[in-house]
Amino acid sequence: MDDEADRASAAGDERAFGRLLERHRHELRVHCHRLLGSYDEAEDMVQETFLRAWHKRDQYAGRSTFRAWLYRIATNRCLDHLARQPDAGELEADGTEPSTPGADAAVLAREVLEQAFLTALQHLPPKQRAVLVLRDVLGWPAKECAEVLAISVASANSALQRARATMKRVHDERARPSDAERVLLRRYMSALDRSEVDVVVELLDQERRAA
């Protein structure tokens, strides 16, 4: 794929370059969503990433993988976007896509976990949030993460340690649910165990309306 990117970039072949970008659309959308907490904003950032990649294609010199180059652009676009927000540390409320009755129970369970993860992420500054997602979610090495964020490896490791400490604190604080939350959790787990998708959807909808 990196050779394809080199050829498409060198030839100025917009159609071929666009096909390469499209292969990464879904994973970039997920990545941006984790950083922003909004599917609409994530899609906007992916579009901006694609436009910037095309206009800056001459700067892709194969020093990193094409995928890493796209992630660098996407991450920086998200950080710039967060910096322009009134409260750069706060994620939006639309953490999961709307569930549908036909969705698989395992997918719904992942959505619930993703929402919990996004809720915890809002306690992190944007740079720490990006480091945590790149290192602990995507599994990138410290050096590559540092290159994407244009910081030193030591700074990336320090940010990761602070982010992990904050996430642990938030998790510990949330580990003491109220009686009502315990009841709701038991209902969730019971429905998921029996693969009662409609029940899970109804519980999610009730919680959304009550929020």
Task: Explain how this protein is built.
It is a single chain. The chain is mainly alpha-helical and 211 residues long. It has a domain of 89 residues: RNA polymerase sigma factor, region 2, helix turn helix motif (Rna Polymerase Sigma Factor, Chain: A). The protein is built from 11 helices and no strands. Helix 4 crosses helix 5. The longest helix has 22 residues. About 9% of the residues have low confidence.
Quick gist of this model?
This protein is an all-alpha fold and 211 residues long. Helix content is 73%, strand content 0%. Keywords: Sigma factor, Transcription, Transcription regulation.
Query: What is the helical fraction, as a range of percent?
Result: over 70%
What is the CATH class name of the domain at 1-89?
Mainly Alpha
**Share of β-strand residues:** under 5%
Named at the architecture level, the CATH assignment of the domain at 1-89 is Orthogonal Bundle
Helix and strand composition category: mainly alpha
- The CATH homologous superfamily of the domain at 1-89 is named RNA polymerase sigma factor, region 2, helix turn helix motif
Unreliable sequence segments: 88-105
From the spread of the alpha carbons, the general shape counts as globular
How many E-type strands? Answer: 0
Question: How many helices?
Answer: 11
Termini separation comes to 45 Å
Please describe the biggest sheet, giving its number of strands, its sense, and whether it closes into a barrel.
Answer: none
CATH fold naming of the domain at 1-89: Rna Polymerase Sigma Factor, Chain: A
Report the average pLDDT across residues: 75
User: Compute the gyration radius: what is it?
Assistant: 19 Å
Please write the string of helix (H) and strand (E) elements.
HHHHHHHHHHH
Domain RNA polymerase sigma factor 70 region 4 type: 115-167
Organism: Amycolatopsis eburnea
Pfam families: Sigma70_r2, Sigma70_r4_2
Protein name: Sigma-70 family RNA polymerase sigma factor
